[in-house]
Fold this sequence. Notes:
By secondary structure, the protein is of the alpha/beta class. The protein is built from 13 helices and 23 strands. The longest helix is centred in the middle third of the chain and has 22 residues, at 242-263.
Amino acid sequence: MSAVNGHAARKTPATRKARVLDVAIIGAGFSGLGTAIRLREQGITDIAILERGDDVGGTWRDNTYPGAACDIPSNLYSFSFAQNPRWSRGYSGSAEILDYVHHLVDRFELRPLMRFRHNVKGLEFDEARGAWTISIAGKRNVHARCVVAAQGPLANPSLPDIPGIDSFGGEVIHSARWDNDYDFDGKRVAVIGTGASAIQIVPELARRVDFLKVFQRTPAWILPRLDYSAPDWNKTLFDKWPASQTAVRNALFYAHEAMATGVIWNTPVTRLLEGLAKAFLRHQVPDAWVRRQLTPQYRIGCKRLLISNDYYPALMRDNVKLYDWPIDKICEKGIRSAEGIEHQVDCIVFATGFSVPKAAAPFPITGAGGRQLDNEWARGAAAYKSVNVAGYPNLFMTLGPNAGPGHNSALAYIEPQIDYIVQGIGTILEYDLRALDVRADAQAKHNAELQKRLARTNWNSGCSSWYLTEDGFNATMYPGFATQYRAQMKAFVNADYRAIRHNAEFSRTVDA
C-alpha cells in the first residue's frame, strides 16, 4: 500500500473489494436453515444466512402471543431428516417449536453462517458477472452467485384498511409483534380478526380481561384439535427406535393427504367435513343466535380450515361478546361499528395475519435486462414449480407462488423445494455457470396447467380469502396432494432451463 505524508493511503470505493459468496440465503427460519443443512451435505459450504432479526426462528421467533401453537401435529411439523423424539404434545406451542429450531442450529453447527441484523432491502442481478448484489439496510452490500429467498410468506404483519387506525389512544398490539409486558388483567380489550391466530389468542385473553369484544368479518370452519400430552414411554420409544416415529409421521402425513379430498375439491368428503364442523359447533355453542353468527356461508376449504377445542367455549363466557357488524372506523377511545355504536376499549389486538406477497415481490428485485419482479407480478405472482422465475437467473425461492398447503404440513412442501434448489445450485457451481435461468415458455406452460387445476378447487369457489389477489387470481395454493407436489420436484429438468457459461474464469471478488 502506498503512503502519503507518512500515512497509509486510504482505499477508495473503486479499489475496495468484496468477496462473492457461492450462496446467500435470506431468512433463518425453517426454510433457510434446512437449505443450509442440505447444501453442506452436498459439499457446498461457502454460504451466508442473512437474517433481519437478532436470532433464528422466523415466524416462531416473532409470534409469542398467548396460546401460539402449530395447527399441524408436531411429528409432522419437523424435518424428516431431523426428527424430534421428545415433543411434549401432539400439537406443540411456539416456544417448543422455537427450541427445535435452535436444536437444528446447534446440531448442524449453523451458527457460523449467520449474519444477524441483515435486513435485505433489494436484489440486483449483474448479467456480465453472473452474481447478485444484495443491498442491506445500514450495512455493506453482500454479493453471491446464487440467492435463496427463504424469508417465508408469514414475515410481515398486515393491518386492515380501516379508517382512523392511527387515531386510537389506547394500546395497539399485533399478534405477530406481541407486547409481553402489557398487563391485560382487568382491561377492556377488542380483538379484530377471527382467523388462525385469533382463535388461539381469544381463549387466553378471555381468562384475564374484564371484558373481551371479538370483531368478526367472516366466520371460519373449525374442527376439533386432537391434542394430547405425550407420555414418557412414547418419547422413549421414539428415541430408541426412530423407525417407530417415522411410521407415526407417515401415518399422519397420509391422514392429512386424505383430508385433501374434501378440503381442496368439492366431493362427498366436503359435505362430511362440513357436517362434522356443524356438529362440533352445535356441541360447543348452545346459543342459537351465536351459532348463526359462527356458521360460514361458503364451502369448507375456500378459506383456511381451523382447529380449536377452546375457541367456541371462550365465546360463551359472560365476559366475551362476538360482533359481526362491519367496523366503520377506529376512534380515539375504541371502535365504531357500522350500526353506529362506539365500543370503548383499553386495548385493540389486531389478529389480522400477514402481508403475503401475492402481487408484489417481498422487496425490490431487479433481474436480467433491468426487469422488475414487482412489475411482472402486478397481476399475480407466478413461478416455475414455485422455485424459479424466468428472467431472474440463479435466484431460488422457498414457499414461492402456488406452494401453499391447504391440508398438510408446510414442511412436506419445503423439503422437496430445498432438494430441488440444491440440485439447481449444484449445477451452477459444478459447471461454473454464469446463469441458470428457467425458460419463459416452460414457466408459462407450468402456470397455465396450475391455473386450470385451481379453477376446479374450493379455494376458487367464490369466497374472498388471503389466497387470492383482489381480482381473484390464486397465486398462493398448490392444487393437489403433497405427494403430487413432491413428485414434480424430484427431477430437475435441464431442458426447462437456459444455462450460460462464464466466458472467463469467475472472479471471487467484486468492487464493493
